[in-house]
Design goal:
By secondary structure, the protein is of the alpha/beta class. The chain folds into 3 domains: 98 residues, Orthogonal Bundle (Fumarate Reductase Iron-sulfur Protein, Chain B, domain 2), CATH 1.10.1060; 154 residues, FAD/NAD(P)-binding domain (3-Layer(bba) Sandwich), CATH 3.50.50.60; 140 residues, FAD/NAD(P)-binding domain (3-Layer(bba) Sandwich), CATH 3.50.50. The chain has 15 helices and 17 strands. The strands form 5 sheets. The protein has a 5-stranded parallel sheet, sandwiched between helices. Strands 6-13-7-8-9 form a 5-stranded parallel sheet. Strands 10-11-12 form a 3-stranded antiparallel sheet, with no helix packed on it. The longest helix has 19 residues.
């Protein structure tokens, strides 16, 4: 999605090589020797807490032990048997608050095992070195399932359904498959077109076809899919972004952070992306951080992140917050946007200072105005339920019971339901578990 024209950076423009360097891999992958050395640090705990902390329940000590034993393919199989998108999750999972946070080495004030990097090493090695998919399909059930959405939840569901012997057709609204993996993550987290490489690998299981540019409510309808297929899985994510609710919100230079990130991901020549010289990002999550850091990497002189509460309330992880600061992002807390100052193009954003009174966020009489020629909104997304009117929905989430919606034979997972953290790894787990439930339903076992 193209951004509206914004004021160009007034400083010296970055060269193509500088931009390329700015968007290189955030986490350098381990080589063979580094992987062996890091795996040797694992204590191979009994009843390991890292397994409990992983939403997909990967047997982490076992795959690390396999790497240590020079059985990288076996390690990859251990990972992928629970998380078919283990490559992406190794890159973007907040391991610092999941598996690595509970590593027992923390107790003795040592650095936790680099579980994410080890997982990436194993999965990347397998994907790069084999043309044969590691899993085989079960005998055909003769059943067909429609999956709406080719994001992490939909693709995970499709893969597990295919493994269990079902035929799957995935309907994706966008030109490319991958969902947030392709469109919504910072470029420096998903280099070398990995999202598409992982999808190509996943599809090698067979029995899955993807139809792109098929938008729910436009090209397809839930009722039509119900008639055509034996079951339906909904993995549409959260497609509608919240508004600030301020006058002049349609001014030039104002856009959603997710659109900004998508533009960066889909533009090969980063020098063609227009950014402001004074960028303000509204929000406190990892999307806000991704947008702010990438604006800086594109050459923006001043980037300010504004949040209405304190830093301790930010949903972004401590690692992401520190990453922002290392990249020169100014973080201003206890401020909420109250007025957009603009003619046709935004020039300033006025914010009202806030405070907690009796645990209630309260606006004060104090104001602060920030120079701003580009405003990016990262204040959250909600479910677009206009095409899901027949489903029970509560607080902008699809209500499910063992992943089945209020309509028999229609299942859902990922960010569209309330199942845990809104994380890629949780969406993958939802897709996997929903597929198992769907397969049992089709076999008459549920």
């Amino acid at each position: 999605m193209a951004l509206e024209p914004c004021n160009p950076v007034t400083g010296r423009p970055l060269t193509t090589n500088q931009l390329k360097q700015n968007f290189t891999d955030l986490h350098k992958p381990l080589n063979f020797q580094q992987a062996l050395e890091e795996s040797d640090r694992c204590l191979y705990c009994y009843d390991a807490p890292c397994i409990q902390a992983c939403p997909t329940s990967i047997d982490i000590p076992t795959f690390i032990h396999q790497i240590r034993s020079d059985n990288t393919s076996g390690a990859a199989l251990t990972i992928l048997s629970e998380n078919i998108m283990g490559g992406t999750c190794a890159r973007v999972c907040p391991t610092e608050v999941l598996c690595e946070q509970v590593c027992v080495l923390n107790v003795s004030h040592q650095q936790p095992v680099e579980i994410g990097l080890l997982q990436r090493h194993a999965v990347d090695t397998l994907i790069s070195n084999t043309n044969k998919h590691p899993f085989k399909r079960a005998d055909s059930t003769g059943k067909t399932v429609a999956v709406i959405g080719a994001g992490p939840a939909g693709l995970s569901c499709a893969h597990r359904l295919a493994m269990l012997g079902n035929d799957v057709v995935v309907y994706e609204a966008k030109e490319k498959s991958g969902g947030l993996n392709e469109y919504g993550l910072a470029e420096y987290k998903m280099v070398d077109n990995f999202a598409q490489k992982e999808i190509d690998f996943l599809l090698q299981i067979g029995g899955i076809s993807i139809k792109n540019n098929q938008k729910l409510g436009v090209s397809i309808s839930l009722s039509t899919l119900q008639e055509k297929y034996d079951a339906v899985f909904i993995g549409v994510g959260l497609g509608t972004t919240y508004r600030l609710g301020l006058d002049k919100e349609e001014s030039q230079g104002i856009s959603d952070a997710v659109d900004f990130i998508e533009t960066i991901r889909q533009t090969k020549d980063k020098s063609q992306i227009q950014v402001g010289n004074d960028v303000v990002v509204i929000g406190a999550g990892n999307t806000a951080i991704d947008a702010a850091v990438q604006a800086k990497k594109l050459g923006t002189e001043n980037v300010t992140l504004v949040y209405r509460r304190g830093e301790q309330h930010m949903s972004a992880t401590d690692y992401e917050i520190e990453l922002a600061r290392k990249n020169g992002i100014v973080i201003k807390t206890w401020l909420t946007p109250s007025k957009i100052i603009a003619d046709e193009h935004i020039a300033q954003i006025e914010c009202t200072k806030t405070e907690l009174i009796n645990d209630k966020l309260t606006e004060t009489v104090f104001k602060e105005t920030i120079k701003c020629d580009m405003l990016l909104k990262a204040i959250g997304q909600t479910l677009n339920d206009s095409d899901l009117v027949d489903l029970e929905i509560e607080k902008s989430k699809i209500v499910v019971d063992n992943y089945q919606t209020s309509i028999q034979g229609v299942y859902a997972g990922g960010d569209a339901i309330k199942s845990g953290e809104d994380l890629t790894v949780q969406a993958v787990e939802d897709g996997k578990q929903a597929a198992i439930a769907i397969d049992k339903h089709l076999r008459g076992e549920l």
